[in-house]
Amino acid sequence: MPHQPVRGTRLFTVTADTLVAVDFGPRTRRRPPGPYGRLFARPGTRAFTLANLLARLPMGMFSVSAVVMIAGTRGSYALAGAVTATGLAATALVAPWTARLVDRYGQARVAVPATLCAALGSLALVLCVHTGAPAWTLFAAYAATATTPNTGGMSRARWAHLLDGDPDALHTANSFEQSADELCFMLGPVLAAFLCGTFFPEAGTLVGVALLVTGILVFAAQRSTEPPPSGRTTTATPTSSRSPVRSPGMPPLLAVCLALGAVFGSTEVVTIAFADAQGHRTAAGFVLALQAAGSCAAGLLYGRFRFAGPAEDRYPWCVAAMTALLLLPLLAASLTGSLLLLSAALLIAGMATAPTMITNMTLVQRRTPDGRLNEGMTLAVTALLGGIACGSAAGGWAAEHLAPTAAYGVPVTAAAVALLIALTTPGAGEDGTGEQDSTDGGVKRG
């Protein structure tokens, strides 16, 4: 019995003077991987990324967990807010020094003991709350968590090391990392509130500690992708020994980060106040999660594009788009008073956040001296935290003394300040030397 040809194969027949190939059907062709597929096809990238995400998720849990835990047991939101503010201030002071040690001695040697110290601080806070210790012990315990390393910064430093000389791939990596930040700060508070409300007030902090320690230990074990410590591999030069704060073009970037932090902090407080005024305070977390979801989706999409010209040329446009879109929540709250329409407005407004932060972090990386990348990015995060604290205070004052609807003018004002700084700052070049970097390539889809 003759064999039947299989679809998708070719049958070769011989005639007197030629070899003929008869095609019985189309062959399956593999679709080339997209930019994210090519990014994670590199050896070791998936392992350190998953571990870092595990360690990064608690960053969105600890603050909410502490507030719920302290307010639930001590009956004072004022005390809970003061304790978390103290921890924020301590982190702003300690984090750059921790990052400098990470750059100098390596991620594994510094991040693990620093994380263990922070974990002990969180456990001490749980113990103090549970045993009814004096209030001052809560401040001391939470301040001890300031040694937590900048997990997102360490992940970005690994990408910068692995993708050195490939700006297109680094743009995709930075886009992914910003989207990961948004995802963690979207899921973290929801997870913390669920754990504290479903089980017991200390559950959110305890789970956060377990995730942080496990993630850092696994992350530090991925030694093949770890960037070399600057203290052992580079020779001291005037550029590398200079603090990132003093690098050309860096102070304006940090000033913009401070203003953007005020946007985030004020938006969070004002949204909670608006939802509370509408009688739906419990829905505030989901409304804010929509804003983070919009930013996460926009960040992943932004990473698929390549742009002509240097990043600093499109930086003011990103900030301008963010400022313009922040008018939508103000209009939705003022004109309609509808929480549903406000949610849609925040979802759209959030779509400008990730592109702005991605471009900002790209410029921070390129203007940071060699061997001090973790420190430079941590300074940017510190500026954001300081802005969040200021924005929270300003948004809370406006919501209480004016109205929650009018208070949405605070994030718009903060974004306008960021835009003014971005527009009036003379360019220093992406590499911090005054020379424009034109390696971004032409506009194309990945």
From TrEMBL:
TM region(s), chain numbering: 47-71, 77-98, 110-133, 191-220, 252-275, 281-303, 315-333, 339-358, 379-399, 405-423
Q: Tell me which Pfam families the record gives.
A: MFS_1 (PF07690)
- In which residue ranges is the amino acid composition biased (Low complexity)? 231-247
- Entry-linked Gene3D superfamilies: MFS general substrate transporter like domains (1.20.1250.20)
Q: Which InterPro entries match?
A: MFS, MFS_trans_sf
- Where do the record's region annotations for Disordered lie? 224-247
The alphabetical list of record keywords is:
Membrane, Transmembrane, Transmembrane helix
The name this protein goes by in its record: MFS transporter
Say which species the protein is native to: Streptomyces coerulescens
